[in-house]
């Protein structure tokens, strides 16, 4: 074989890997960009139902105008199958584009699925190399389908709306925390702890599946949903619910740093104060074989929203601080009682004992007998622009 | 023209070689055994690696200026020596094929699932063979340039990931009895015993290879330790022990602001450079073995056949990852020890016997 | 007897010499022969033959012929210069005719004026060459804001003068050579005797001596022979048209090659990072110079990698792109028929075509071309749905960053590299770009320029020189007395 033949053969051979390497290529407009995923289960048939909310790229304002009116920002597809993996093959009976879940923002789980257990889904997400598991997971109160097929005002894509709300809640309140991602769920479940995930409730029975109607109506309440309350998960199953008030104290005990504004009662008078956690310490010790968990919290108060009453002297400040500390301690203890009663272990006592005293022979029993003492040290640090609220007779 | 490698270049090469495929292959098993204390283990194995290094240096002291495969030729004569050198060649080829297979498994499992594995093998091998054909100086200089480009993105990304850091993941600290590690000797062998392939470069290192080699092993073990430490801190022992590629998952969770949320492809590609360097050294050792034993006039046929051989080995290395994991668990320490401890011990014994015999004769 | 032979020679010369010369040169139209006769006779006193295109006619008219006509020559007071081979050469009629003819032809071609003095029976060659040169001007491709604005011209003597006036040091050596079998071009090898390593000068000399070619019309012709590796997109010799730049290199211990007939001067050896320096760096403040150097490095990477990264990200690794951007890019691609790789390739090739056309467009038509280029290819193609808008941006950014590198030949390498990376990125994604980048690095690292590693001082690492690579350290901190360590190392190798 002459050199020329060898060279041409080599070039042909070199072209082969180039050609077969494009099997991974996908054009951008062949992708179905998933923005929200919903998981429901149908106990009757023993199947699971997955909802995919796909972004419609042509509905943005910067794109080429398409004749025929407003296009929907998202489309929801639903698929039923026996296991999550099967959906990957079944979905293309309905979906014309390749499923691309790398950019999805929120995962919704229906309450009935949550109560049955989400272990399968958590495993499914972690197993996929392309699926990110650092996504917040929320539980939907009631049926999942109406929530997946509703538009939200102000944010075109509903998952953006939910994610933005979670971010704002995290900074401006104690109703939500950062650790509500699937990764946190898995980690906590593997450590035999509990986790509380936010709950999505519908505010209205009406359903708005026409984007034009929603975006041109002034009433933002219609057909929307609200993030309120928490769902307690243990061992991948939902075992109970917390209301908003309990959620505040749960997050405080978790060590969340959000700034929460709440109306307290000081000496029978209402005062609206903003408080946030500075430092929390948890120390276990044993008293006659019984574990005692001492939780001490340093809390910073701000009277910037206290239109009812602003303390005038040091004595009043001390009294305010004492009353608020006591109020918070009482609320936290109430939460602990509830958690003990329902065996939720919301304060993570078992985990704490496991970490600090791993050699203890029976941590389970110890946790059941544990006593908790909470000490709150609240300090008023800031005032608003008014030294004293305007008085008057009226 | 004499090839000259400076001590600093060799030091960097040692570190990158040892770190090589470890982030892809070893982490999951190690954390499964060690749980939250697994980060101690690489330091201990580093000590064992230093001992092995000292053992090889003892052998090399009797043959100054010679590389690994020239020693059997000198010690045992032309024909038996060639057989022993050929054994080393087989070892280097097997390791290279293994690494190629690890590479294609990783890429197929994470960022490019549809591409056939052989494309990865051939493309990578082409670049590796080109670099090796330019000589040892090219290999070490390339490593020198690439190290800062590797170092900064990798650690910067982990710094960005520290948003998810949680010190509680380490508690209870130092709870584990280190004896439990010794029941899994597979982690003793990999990756430190494979550094015998760096000994092919010993004769070219200026002012003696001992210090950069041993320092490199120590630094690499500390780096691996830090890496395991970071993975535990980011993911937690429970998750990291189940995930196939913990490093990849840890990086998947990194988000730079709100915009760049999926930078794992970039970082995995950067990590591939570590695999590249390890493969460079191994293929260099393999081709140098051929060069020094056979002494051909033209070298390109050797490179072409080496490429074909390595692709075939990579393809047929193991059938599925389960088989690979089981084999590594049970047999890899024997396999590595045979080539890296037994054969050098044999050579050392032969050398001593010869010296004693000659001394008696004189 | 002797007398008759002399007479025969005399008659031969007077009858045949000029005619033979004319026929040997093929009756060129610029050959002139001025005859001066002895007053009041028909006897030829002087014939002055010259090629008007090569000589200074004023000198012929006002000096030579006038002096002759003033009879200063005939009275034996002819200018007699001892050193004279360059200015005034005399050959007696007694020399063999053929040799005289050869010398006459060669002299005429070299721009000398031949005087056939019949009275004194000698042939005189006067060097009054005045080649038509352009004035010393700033080179267009290497202009600076601050600093000298002189540039080399096509005359090798003027160029040597420009270098000499900057380095008034007796150690500055010029070694002349003649290269080119047909063109016989003058080439000077320039170096500082006390600074340049011997091994370097020897190597350059031997490489120049080994060149076998017919013509040398530009330094690029020589560069192709002198370079270390032919099949490499990177130049291993620098080319400069600025005398200050050449002088700076010479003072760094490098060698330069001047070629007659071209303003481009070759400098060797050169490293990769020196292509990112320009003389302007040294005429501006150190901090600004450092910033601009970084800008150049970033531009290099942008020009080479951006199109391929764009194609790889949009076809293989869409998860890298932020969500909002991905949505708008997706929207832009609706209705576009071609895959991204093909689109980018077409746009890049169109850009190269526009650039080449722009080089040769007469200025009057240049306006129309920019309108065509910008509006038609950019705007209209996007609106017609042939390409998407982001591709125009990518190509424009790439095109602009291509010109940031100070050395033009390096810009050419960038273009080649860009296309290769585009192909490999389009087929293998980020993995392909990584393999290509490693291949490129391996190639760069193995390249040598006259014994100096191309990627020095980064690899092999030479700490002292880092002061001038990524940062430009202020002059007081730069090596006050010393050469770059690559040159030092060469000196140590004998």
Structural overview:
- The complex is a heterotrimer of chains A (394), B (362) and C (494).
- With 394 residues, chain A is α/β, with parallel strands linked by helices.
- Helix content of chain A is 32%, strand content 30%.
- In chain A, strands 1, 2, 3, 4, 5, 6, 7, 8 and 9 form a nine-stranded mixed sheet that branches. In chain A, strands 10-11-12-13 form a four-stranded mixed sheet.
- The model of chain A has no long low-confidence stretch (mean pLDDT 86).
- Chain B has 362 residues and is an all-alpha fold.
- Chain B has a single domain (7-321), classed as Up-down Bundle (Amino acid/polyamine transporter I), CATH 1.20.1740.10.
- Helix content of chain B is 73%, strand content 0%.
- Chain B starts with 6 loop residues before the first helix and ends with a helix.
- The mean pLDDT of chain B is 88.
- Chain C is of the alpha+beta class and 494 residues long.
- Chain C has three domains: 2-127, no CATH class; 140-270, no CATH class; 284-453, no CATH class.
- Chain C has helices at 2-24, 57-69, 97-109, 156-164, 198-209, 219-226, 243-251, 279-283, 286-315, 323-333, 340-360, 363-383, 389-402, 408-446, 485-492; strands at residues 31-37, 44-51, 88-92, 112-117, 122-127, 172-179, 185-192, 238-240, 255-259, 265-268, 448-449, 452-453.
- In chain C, helix 9 (286-315) runs antiparallel to helix 13 (389-402), helix 11 packs antiparallel against helix 12 (363-383) and helix 11 crosses helix 13.
- The longest helix of chain C is centred in the last third of the chain and has 39 residues, at 408-446.
- At the B-C interface, helix 7, helix 8 and helix 14 of B face helix 10 and helix 14 of C.
């Amino acid at each position: 074989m002459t050199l020329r033949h060898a060279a041409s053969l080599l070039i042909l051979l070199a072209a082969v890997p180039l050609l077969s390497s494009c099997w991974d290529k996908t054009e951008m407009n062949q992708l179905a960009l998933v923005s929200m995923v919903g998981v429901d289960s149908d106990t009757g048939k023993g199947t699971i139902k997955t909802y995919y909310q796909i972004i419609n790229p042509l509905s943005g304002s910067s794109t080429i105008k398409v004749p025929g009116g407003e296009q929907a920002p998202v489309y929801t597809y639903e698929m039923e199958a026996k296991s999550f993996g099967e959906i990957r093959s079944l979905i293309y009976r309905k979906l014309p584009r390749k499923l691309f879940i790398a950019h999805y923002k929120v995962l919704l789980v229906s309450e009935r699925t949550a109560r049955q257990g989400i272990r399968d889904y958590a495993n499914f997400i972690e197993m996929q190399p392309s699926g990110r598991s650092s996504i917040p997971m929320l539980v939907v109160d009631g049926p999942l389908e109406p929530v997946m097929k509703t538009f939200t005002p102000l944010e075109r894509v509903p998952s953006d709306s939910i994610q933005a709300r979670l971010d704002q809640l995290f900074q401006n309140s104690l109703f939500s925390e950062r650790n509500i991602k699937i990764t946190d769920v898995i980690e906590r479940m593997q450590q035999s702890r509990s986790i509380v995930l936010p709950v999505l409730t519908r505010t209205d029975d009406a359903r708005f599946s026409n984007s034009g109607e929603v975006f041109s109506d002034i009433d933002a309440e219609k057909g929307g949903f609200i993030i309120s309350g928490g769902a307690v998960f243990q061992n991948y199953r939902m075992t109970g619910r917390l209301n908003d008030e309990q959620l505040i104290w749960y997050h405080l005990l978790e060590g969340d740093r959000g700034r929460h504004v709440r109306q307290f009662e000081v000496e029978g008078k209402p005062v609206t104060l903003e408080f946030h956690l500075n430092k929390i310490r948890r120390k276990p010790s044993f008293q006659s074989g019984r574990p005692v968990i001492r939780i001490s919290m340093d809390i910073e108060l701000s009277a910037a929203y206290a239109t009812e009453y602003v303390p005038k002297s040091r004595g009043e400040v001390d009294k305010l601080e004492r009353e608020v500390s006591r109020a918070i301690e009482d609320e936290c203890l109430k939460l602990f009682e509830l958690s003990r009663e329902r065996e939720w272990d919301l304060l993570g006592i078992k985990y704490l004992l496991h970490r600090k005293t791993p050699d203890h022979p029976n941590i389970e029993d110890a946790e059941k007998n544990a006593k908790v003492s909470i000490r709150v040290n609240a300090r008023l640090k800031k005032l608003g622009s008014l030294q004293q609220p305007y008085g008057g007779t009226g | 023209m004499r090839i000259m490698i400076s001590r600093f270049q060799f030091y960097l090469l040692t570190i990158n070689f040892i770190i090589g495929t470890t982030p892809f292959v070893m982490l999951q098993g190690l954390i499964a055994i060690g749980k939250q204390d697994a980060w101690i283990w690489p330091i201990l194995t580093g000590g064992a690696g230093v001992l092995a290094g000292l053992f090889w240096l003892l052998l090399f002291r009797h043959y100054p200026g010679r590389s690994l495969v020239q020693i059997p030729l000198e010690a045992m004569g032309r024909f038996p020596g060639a057989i022993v050198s050929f054994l080393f060649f087989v070892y280097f080829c097997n390791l290279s094929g293994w690494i190629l297979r690890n590479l294609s498994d990783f890429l197929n499992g994470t960022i490019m699932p549809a591409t056939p594995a052989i494309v990865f093998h051939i493309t990578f091998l082409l670049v590796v063979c080109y670099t090796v054909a330019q000589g040892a100086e090219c290999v070490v200089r390339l490593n020198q340039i690439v190290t800062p480009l590797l170092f900064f993105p990798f650690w910067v990304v982990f710094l960005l990931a520290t948003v998810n850091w949680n010190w509680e993941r380490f508690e209870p600290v130092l709870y584990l009895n280190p004896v439990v590690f010794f029941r899994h000797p597979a982690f003793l062998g990999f990756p430190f015993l494979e550094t015998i392939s760096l000994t092919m470069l010993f004769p070219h290192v200026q002012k003696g290879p001992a210090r950069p080699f041993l320092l490199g092993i120590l630094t690499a073990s500390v780096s691996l330790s830090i890496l395991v430490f970071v993975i535990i801190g980011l993911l937690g022992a429970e998750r990291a022990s189940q995930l196939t590629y913990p490093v990849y998952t840890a990086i998947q969770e990194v988000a730079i602001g709100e915009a760049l949320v999926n930078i794992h492809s970039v970082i995995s590609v950067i990590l591939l450079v570590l695999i590249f360097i390890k493969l460079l050294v191994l293929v260099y050792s393999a081709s140098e073995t051929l060069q020094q034993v056979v002494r051909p006039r033209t070298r390109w046929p050797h490179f072409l056949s080496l490429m074909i051989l390595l692709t075939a080995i990579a393809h047929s290395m193991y059938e599925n990852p389960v088989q690979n994991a089981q084999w590594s668990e049970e047999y890899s320490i024997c396999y590595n020890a045979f080539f890296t401890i037994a054969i050098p011990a044999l050579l050392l014994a032969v050398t001593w016997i010869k010296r004693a015999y000659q001394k008696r004769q004189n | 007897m002797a007398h008759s032979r002399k007479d025969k020679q005399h008659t031969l010369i007077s009858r045949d010499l000029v005619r033979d010369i004319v026929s040997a040169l093929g009756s060129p139209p610029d050959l002139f022969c001025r005859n001066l006769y002895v007053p009041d006779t028909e006897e030829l006193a002087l014939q002055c033959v010259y090629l008007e295109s090569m000589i200074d006619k004023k000198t012929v008219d006002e000096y030579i012929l006038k002096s002759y006509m003033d009879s200063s020559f005939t009275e034996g007071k002819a200018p007699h210069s001892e050193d004279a081979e360059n200015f005034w050469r005399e050959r007696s009629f007694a020399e063999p005719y053929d040799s005289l003819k050869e010398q006459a032809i060669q002299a005429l071609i070299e721009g000398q004026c031949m005087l056939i003095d019949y009275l004194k029976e000698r042939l005189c060659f006067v060097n009054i060459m005045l080649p038509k040169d352009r004035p010393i001007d700033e080179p267009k491709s290497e202009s600076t804001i601050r600093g000298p604005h002189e540039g080399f011209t096509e005359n090798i003597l003027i160029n040597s003068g420009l270098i000499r006036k900057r380095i008034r040091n007796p150690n500055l050596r010029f070694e002349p050579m003649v290269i080119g079998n047909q063109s016989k071009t003058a080439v000077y090898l320039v170096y500082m005797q006390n600074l340049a390593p011997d091994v370097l000068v020897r190597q350059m000399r031997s490489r120049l001596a080994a060149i076998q070619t017919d013509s040398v019309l530009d330094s690029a012709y020589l560069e192709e022979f002198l370079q270390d590796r032919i099949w490499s997109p990177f130049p291993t010799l620098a080319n400069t048209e600025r005398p200050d730049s050449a002088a700076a290199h010479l003072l760094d211990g490098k060698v330069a090659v001047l070629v007659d007939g071209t303003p481009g001067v070759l400098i060797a050896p050169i490293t990769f990072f020196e292509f990112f320096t320009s003389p302007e760096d040294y005429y501006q403040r150190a901090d600004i110079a450092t910033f601009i150097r970084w800008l150049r490095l970033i531009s290099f990477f942008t020009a080479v990698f951006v199109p391929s990264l764009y194609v790889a990200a949009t076809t293989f690794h869409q998860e890298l792109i932020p969500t909002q951007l991905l949505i708008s890019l997706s929207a832009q691609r609706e209705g576009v028929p071609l895959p991204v790789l093909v689109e980018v390739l077409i746009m890049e090739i169109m850009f190269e075509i526009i650039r080449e056309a722009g080089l040769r467009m007469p200025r009057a038509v240049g306006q129309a071309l920019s309108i065509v280029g910008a509006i038609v290819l950019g705007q209209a193609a996007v609106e017609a749905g042939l390409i998407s808008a982001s591709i125009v941006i990518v190509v424009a950014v790439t095109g602009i960053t291509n010109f940031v590198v100070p050395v033009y030949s390096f810009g050419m390498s960038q273009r080649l590299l860009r296309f290769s990376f585009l192909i490999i990125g389009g087929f293998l994604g980020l993995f392909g770009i990584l393999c290509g980048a490693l291949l490129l690095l391996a190639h760069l690292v193995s390249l040598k320029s006259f014994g100096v590693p191309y990627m020095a001082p980064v690899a092999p690492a030479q700490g002292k020189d880092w002061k001038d690579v990524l940062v430009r350290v202020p002059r007081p901190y730069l090596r006050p007395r010393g050469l770059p360590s690559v040159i030092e190392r060469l000196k140590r190798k004998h």
